[in-house]
Specification:
alpha+beta, elongated, 4 helices, disordered C terminus
C-alpha cells in the first residue's frame, strides 16, 4: 500500500503548521487554512533573542548576517500559509530586540526623546 489516508483533527499541528477549517466570509463554503504553529513562532522568537544576546560586542554586519539567514529560511518555509500576522509579530520582535541591543551596546549614550514628546512645558 503506497499510503494511508487518515482523518486530520482540526487545529492539530503537522510539521510546524496549525491546520484549521473555517467558513469563508460572505459565503457558506468552508476552506482549509494553514497557519504557523505557535510552538514554531515561539522557537524562532527565542532564536532571534539568543542571536541578539550572544555577544554585544559583535559587529553589526555579523549580527545582521546571522539574523538574515535564519529569518530568510524560516519565512520561506512559512510563506505559503496564512502568515501575514505572524510575520508582523516577528518584525516587532526583531525591531524590539534591535533597540535593546543598541541600548546595551551604547549604555553611555542614551537616546533622547523627541522634543514634542516632552510636552509644551519643556520649552
Amino acid at each position: 500500500m503506497a499510503g494511508l489516508v487518515v482523518g486530520l483533527v482540526m487545529g492539530e499541528g503537522l510539521l510546524g503548521w496549525r491546520i484549521q477549517r473555517h467558513r469563508k466570509r460572505g459565503t457558506d463554503r468552508h476552506y482549509v487554512y494553514t497557519y504557523p504553529a505557535k510552538k514554531s513562532v515561539r522557537n524562532v522568537a527565542r532564536k532571534i533573542k539568543t542571536i541578539y544576546r550572544t555577544d554585544v560586542n559583535q559587529p553589526l554586519p555579523v549580527l545582521l548576517r546571522q539574523l538574515n539567514s535564519m529569518l530568510q529560511g524560516w519565512c520561506a518555509y512559512f510563506r505559503t500559509g496564512v502568515s501575514s500576522a505572524t510575520f508582523q509579530f516577528l518584525c516587532q520582535v526583531v525591531c524590539g530586540q534591535a533597540i535593546r541591543w543598541i541600548r546595551r551596546k551604547h549604555r553611555q549614550k542614551r537616546l533622547q526623546r523627541p522634543l514634542l514628546a516632552r510636552g509644551a512645558h519643556a520649552l
